[in-house]
Design brief:
Order of helices and strands: HEEEEEEEEE
Structural class: alpha+beta
Shape: globular
Number of domains: 1
Number of helices: 1
CATH class: Mainly Beta
Number of strands: 9
CATH topology: Immunoglobulin-like
CATH superfamily: Cupredoxins -  blue copper proteins
Strand content: 25-35%
Radius of gyration: 20 Å
Distance between the termini: 56 Å
Largest sheet: 5 strands, mixed
């Protein structure tokens, strides 16, 4: 009886693991790399497909820590509740270093990105098609 229960538990575990792996294949995480220099991002506009992304932010000679803020275009960027918080870097980016965000699912539309610490312009655009 114990052996039958162990086999059943093993089989159910294998099925669950296989199903979870198949679900993750559909959610491939891609990387969007952005570089900051003093006062600006080097990339002013990007176009990507819908999907899940990690933002990789590089601080190239700014001289102090930088960050990253992403907001759906048309929303008030000064209100933190409008920020897409999963797109924040996991910790401030030191000069000469890079940091990534958590995976962020982007739907069709336009977004603006900026860094209040650098500070950069608030008209950098990310278009998701």
């Amino acid at each position: 009886m114990k052996r039958a229960i162990a086999v059943l538990v093993f089989a159910l575990g294998a099925i669950f693991t296989s199903t979870a792996q198949d679900a993750m294949k559909d959610k491939e995480v891609k990387t969007i790399s952005l570089e900051q220099v003093p006062g600006e991002f080097t990339q002013k506009q990007l176009t990507v497909s819908e999907g899940t992304y990690v933002f990789d932010i590089t601080n190239n000679g700014v001289g102090h820590n930088v960050g990253f803020v992403l907001v759906k275009k048309g929303l008030d960027i000064s209100k933190p509740e409008n920020h897409i918080q999963t797109a924040y870097v996991t910790k401030p980016v030191e000069t000469g270093a890079s940091q990534t965000s958590k995976p962020t699912t982007l739907e069709k539309g336009e977004y603006v990105y900026f860094c209040p610490l650098n500070p950069t312009a608030t008209d950098n655009t990310l278009v998701v098609k």
